[in-house]
Amino acid sequence: MILPRALVLSVLPLLVIGEQFEIPAVEAIVDKVLHNYSKWVNFKGHSSHSDTAKRSAATNVAKRGLAYNNNNPNNNAAYANLFAGYPKVSWGYDWGYPSWGLGSNFEFVPMLWGLPSGSDPNWTAAVDTAGTLNILGFNEPDLTYSGSANILPANAAAGYKTYMEPFAAKVKIGMPNVLWNNVGSSSGGNYDTAQWTQYFLGNCTGCHFDFAAIHWYQDCDPGNGQSGPEWFQGNVTEAYQTLNLPIWITEFECYGSDAQQVTFLQQVLPWLDEQSYVERYAYFGVFPDYLVNSAGNGLSNIGVAYATT
């Protein structure tokens, strides 16, 4: 849907009662409104990347990935490396950088978790590291939880222009990782996810995005007339239809017993692998009592289901 310029010109005076504008100034405002509206409603991912071989290599891998950290006695990627030898698992990220010794059989994807306070040479070095094909942006900037970046849309857009866009010719760039749960989760600006994303895109003029990154958390049995897998699939589909970009699901989990989670994975993993628009996904998370057993020396039942289904 495109708003006719003449229509907006006809109603704009109603929006600026009490203000005095010259006609050229009004027309300039209209042009900006139309530009930002069109950008949201008809948003298409675009890229000026020149390294086509690098970008192609980034897509010719298994979709399944690992969301891990270095919180273990050895302060490394030991838990993630338990998935070595499972060919359906091909990549990992740790909400930051470096990789903490992630095995060479996995692609490591660095993330800029939040807004740096100034120049960040370590981030630049991480992106420039040989083998880096994709980069992830801010972690849940639309939320206020302690583990979320909580960034206002305009500030996030400015951050993308400073810290992400300079690498557009080298790697594939993801949009910020937002919660896509069909819920009104609020950020510091009291935006829900859809509003936050709309305002972010409106401010991030000239930004290049190769994929959208989303999170999903919900009960395995939500009790709302849908099964957990149905709700999950609907949310992923909605994200793709809204953003018109390949989808990375960088965190997802259904809340329930081990048996319920195994059943959930057995139903959704084949579906994810069948969807051409889903490029990558990572179940939460590579920690003891999640995808790793409580002793930390092998995969849990959930981890085995994730690695082998």
Report on the architecture of this protein.
This protein has 309 residues and is α/β, with parallel strands linked by helices. The chain folds into two domains: 5-39; 49-308, Alpha-Beta Barrel (TIM Barrel). It has helices spanning 5-15, 23-41, 52-59, 78-81, 121-128, 153-163, 193-203, 228-243, 258-274, 301-308, and strands at residues 64-67, 89-93, 107-108, 134-135, 172-179, 211-219, 247-255, 278-283. Strands 3-2-1-8-7-6-5-4 form an eight-stranded parallel β-sheet, with helices on both faces. It is globular and about 45 Å long. It starts with a helix and ends with a helix. The model is unreliable at 1-58 and 184-189 (pLDDT under 50). It comes from Penicillium frequentans. Residues 1-18 form the signal peptide. Residues 65-306 form the Asl1-like glycosyl hydrolase catalytic domain.
Topology:
Elements: H1 5-15, H2 23-41, H3 52-59, E1 64-67, H4 78-81, E2 89-93, E3 107-108, H5 121-128, E4 134-135, H6 153-163, E5 172-179, H7 193-203, E6 211-219, H8 228-243, E7 247-255, H9 258-274, E8 278-283, H10 301-308
Parallel strand pairs: 1-2, 1-8, 2-3, 4-5, 5-6, 6-7, 7-8
